[in-house]
């Protein structure tokens, strides 16, 4: 009985003991819990980021920096960095292709040279068209210079004269509206039954593209509209090129530090169409005042009221490009060769090229106002309005000019006179005025001929065969330093003048060398020296000049006879071949320095 009571009490105690925590738990569960603090998403993101491994953090930072860099390059730098990466990537790809497949020492299987040059020229051409601006101008310069790169490059680069990628109509419309105070294209150029503005461009170049339009009164005009962001792109590209010139000057000791500044001063006005209109008006006046060129040369009239900083409106000219020699020579009645409303021009190539060369000879030696971009896309040919049997040359694109000071113009005229008369004393005198140790390099480059080799230099030539690659590179740097002369004295205008000479030589060569270019330019230089009082014209001087010009004539006509019988390709082509033989050493150095095989 007692045991049962104790057990009963113990059980009850245990029950109460167990029931007490349960009651406390129930009471606790019945009481409301304190509210939890809500964490912000930013805090969650920070904690999640802390849990990331270090390499993921690096990738995220790199991704963010890439986006920032892309936006800065696109909206502030004008895409300069991206275009530079594209250019460098293309050059690396080309260099690797040549290393893998060119020549007997190729790393992999050897490919046909023509196929290899063709595909790499296509890659380079596509890159230049995509980058536009100065890259397109570089391609145009290479197209005219056949001594450095193989023929496949020269032919493909010829597409860049007027076949650059065109901007969309919406971009063109925005440029016109912005430059004319928000007025629409119809308000600016007229809106009526006779008015027209073609949305598709007739030609597209490195800086702008040309649209055909008709004003309200039916007047046909050419509207040259600048690409939307080309000004920003060119400014940054020029800045990059200036850095490259500065680096080259610092690393090699060549006097090139001021070349970048000079090119910047010359090229920047190209993106100012008001400046281009002023150049066109000035050249038009000079031509009109010249009895020999009046009527033979035409500069399109500028409509200043329809022009602005980025829009240039001129009269429309129906003509064919200088390199369309089949159309120039084809009879006017010949069917199948269409040129606007004409079938052919029925003109002589010699008359056409002679007019072109006389125009530029006047610019070089008489006016001192030189058009520095005479590529075939900027020169049109049409029949003379008063004499259809004679050509009239139309000069376009007046953005890039060089204005020669009277002293420099006299030096340049004496320089050319010394070239054609083989006057070494006068040549040395001009070279000294330009701060050069020797005039031979510039003389040979100007005439497009191989360097003269003096007897004393034959021993040096034998030594060159045993020199190392480093010795050869150092020697060529020293020769280039002598070529550029004293940086404070040397006229940098020579760089652009020689570019014009090179392009003119390329034009004459493409047409089959119908004109003795060297004699014609030399004759005008001699006349400029005499008429300008730049030198004393003694009887011996006059006689020596005539003998020198006769020698040039004999060389030219002998080349024409050989060409007629199939033993030559023309005077200019023979000069070019001699130049290419001289450029062999330069090509070898390019291959060693850059890893790019160019032949």
TrEMBL record:
Record-annotated ABC1 atypical kinase-like domain positions: 160-430
Lineage, uppermost ranks: Eukaryota, Fungi, Dikarya, Ascomycota, Pezizomycotina
Start and end residues of each stretch annotated as Disordered: 18-41, 449-472
Low complexity bias (residue ranges): 18-31
Protein name: ABC1 atypical kinase-like domain-containing protein
Family: Belongs to the protein kinase superfamily. ADCK protein kinase family.
InterPro entries named among the record's database cross-references: ABC1_dom (IPR004147), ADCK1_dom (IPR045307), Kinase-like_dom_sf (IPR011009), Mito_struct-func_regulator (IPR051130)
Compositional bias annotation for Basic and acidic residues: 450-472
């Amino acid at each position: 009985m007692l045991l049962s009571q104790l057990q009963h009490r113990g059980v009850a105690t245990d029950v109460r003991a167990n029931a007490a925590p349960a009651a406390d738990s129930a009471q606790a569960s019945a009481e409301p819990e304190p509210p939890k603090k809500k964490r912000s998403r930013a805090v969650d993101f920070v904690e999640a980021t802390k849990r990331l491994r270090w390499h993921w953090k690096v990738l995220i930072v790199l991704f963010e920096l890439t986006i920032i860099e892309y936006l800065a390059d696109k909206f502030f730098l004008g895409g300069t960095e991206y275009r530079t990466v594209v250019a460098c990537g293309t050059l690396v790809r080309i260099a690797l292709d040549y290393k893998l497949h060119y020549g007997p020492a190729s790393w992999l299987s050897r490919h046909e040279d023509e196929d290899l040059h063709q595909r790499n020229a296509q890659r380079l051409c596509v890159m230049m068209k995509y980058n536009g601006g100065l890259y397109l101008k570089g391609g145009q310069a290479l197209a005219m210079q056949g001594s450095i790169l193989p023929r496949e490059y020269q032919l493909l680069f010829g597409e860049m004269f007027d076949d650059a990628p065109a901007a969309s109509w919406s971009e063109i419309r925005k440029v016109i509206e912005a430059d004319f105070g928000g007025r629409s294209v119809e308000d600016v150029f007229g809106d009526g039954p006779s008015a027209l503005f073609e949305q598709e461009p007739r030609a597209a170049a490195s800086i702008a593209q040309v649209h055909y339009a008709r004003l309200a009164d039916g007047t046909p005009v050419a509207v040259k509209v600048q690409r939307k962001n080309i000004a920003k792109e060119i400014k940054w590209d020029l800045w990059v090129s200036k850095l490259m010139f500065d680096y080259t000057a610092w690393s090699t000791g060549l006097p090139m530090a001021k070349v970048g500044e000079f090119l910047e001063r010359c090229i920047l006005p190209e993106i100012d169409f008001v400046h281009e209109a002023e150049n066109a008006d000035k050249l038009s006046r000079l031509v009109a005042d010249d009895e020999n060129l009046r009527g033979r040369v035409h500069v399109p009239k500028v409509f200043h009221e329809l022009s602005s900083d980025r829009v240039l409106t001129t009269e429309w000219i129906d003509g064919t490009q200088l390199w369309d020699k089949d159309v120039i020579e084809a009879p006017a009645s010949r069917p199948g060769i269409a040129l606007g409303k004409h079938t052919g021009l029925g003109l002589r190539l010699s008359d056409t090229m002679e007019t072109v060369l006389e125009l530029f000879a006047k610019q070089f030696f008489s006016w001192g106002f030189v058009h520095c971009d005479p590529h075939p896309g900027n020169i049109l040919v049409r029949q003379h309005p008063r004499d259809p049997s004679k050509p009239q040359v139309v000069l376009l694109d007046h953005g890039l000019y060089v204005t020669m000071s009277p002293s420099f113009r006299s030096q340049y005229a004496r320089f050319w006179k010394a070239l054609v008369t083989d006057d070494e004393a006068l040549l040395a005198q001009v070279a000294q005025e330009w701060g050069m140790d020797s005039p031979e390099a510039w003389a040979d480059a100007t005439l497009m001929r191989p360097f003269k080799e003096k007897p004393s230099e034959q021993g040096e030539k034998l030594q060159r065969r045993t020199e190392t690659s480093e010795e050869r590179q150092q020697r060529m740097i020293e020769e280039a330093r002598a070529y550029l002369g004293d940086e404070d004295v040397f006229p940098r205008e020579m760089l652009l003048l020689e570019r014009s000479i090179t392009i003119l030589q390329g034009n004459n060569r493409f047409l089959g060398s119908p004109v003795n270019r060297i004699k014609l330019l030399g004759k005008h230089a001699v006349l400029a020296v005499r008429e300008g009082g730049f030198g004393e014209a003694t009887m011996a001087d006059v006689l020596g000049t005539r003998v020198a010009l006769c020698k040039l004539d004999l060389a030219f006509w002998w080349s024409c006879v050989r060409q007629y019988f199939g033993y030559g390709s023309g005077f200019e082509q023979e000069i070019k071949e001699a130049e290419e033989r001289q450029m062999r050493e330069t090509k070898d150095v390019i291959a060693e320095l850059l890893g790019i095989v160019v032949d």
